Every structure is written in C-alpha cells, then in structure tokens.
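Progress report, Aim 2. The chain analyzed during this reporting quarter is listed below.
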Amino acid sequence: MQEEKNKGNKAGRKGMYRDWISPEGLIKIEGWARDGLSNKQIAQNIGIREGTIYEWINNYPEFSEALKKGKEVIDREVENALLKRALGYQAEETKTYVKDDGNGKKNKHVEKVQKHLAGDVTAMIFWLKNRKPEEWRDRKETELSGYVDNNINAIKGLTTEELKELAKRDTTE
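Predicted structure tokens for the chain:
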C-alpha cells in the first residue's frame, strides 16, 4: 500500500511544473518539440495530462517559448542558414599577427577583412530539389502512350520449322 502511494507521489512529482520550467527542463521540452513530438507526446514524456500542457502554455511564458522555439524558430533559422549558404554571403574575418617594428619590439596587429564566401552548390541543389521538385528532381518520369505492334498474330499459326526458317532469314538479311 505504501509503495502504491509513493508511486503516485513520484508520478505527481515528475509532472511538477517547477521541474519543467527550469533551464534543464526547458531544454528537454524544446528538444522534444524540435524532434517533432506533438503536445500530447510531450505531455506523456513529462507525466501529465494533455490538458495540463495547455494550462502550462498559458501560465508559464518560458514553457510556451520553449515549445515555440523548438517547433517554429529552429526551422526558420535552418532555412535561413541554408538559403544564406546557397546564395553566398559577406563575412568579416579577423586576422591577428605579430609585426616587428624594426627596433626589436614586436607589436600585435588585428586586422578585420571583409570576405565573400561563394554560394555552396550542394545547398543550392538541396534548396531547388525541395522547393521546385518538378523541375529539379533527379529522375524525370516520361509517360508513353500509343500502340506497340509486336506482330505476334503474324507468327501465331507457324510450325517450329517455319519459325526456324524465319529466324534464319532475319539473321542473314
């Protein structure tokens, strides 16, 4: 009897909102959302009813944000990064080097340089295959219509000898 009571407390404890609005809990929530789990599945992982998850979304902004970020924002961030990589972009590069001033003294110099990174062909292909599959997929499907005459009826009534003679004639012509 005591074990059953403890099990109930443990299950109740597992679903306590305080555990799930902690930084560690929010990371798990965001990860599950990013993995594509539904709110119902996330509720099951937490150990709460599905309705409770909606209460938490309404009552705890950090919980709601973790779900949103996992489900929406990360997809957009990846899309934007893929597009940026496909098109190419300008990036600032910092170079640090030591320069001798001629008097034996070495000075550290930091130089910032704008660098153009060319578009990535693989990212371009991936983008186009997914955004315009009819034009960019690897395999094109061709549909043929019409009638193919294989002349099977012309040889249907021939004997074996006649067929052999016909075959011999075809190879010599």
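Confidence is low (pLDDT under 50) at residues 1-15. The longest strand covers residues 89-100. These observations will guide the mutagenesis work planned for the next reporting period.
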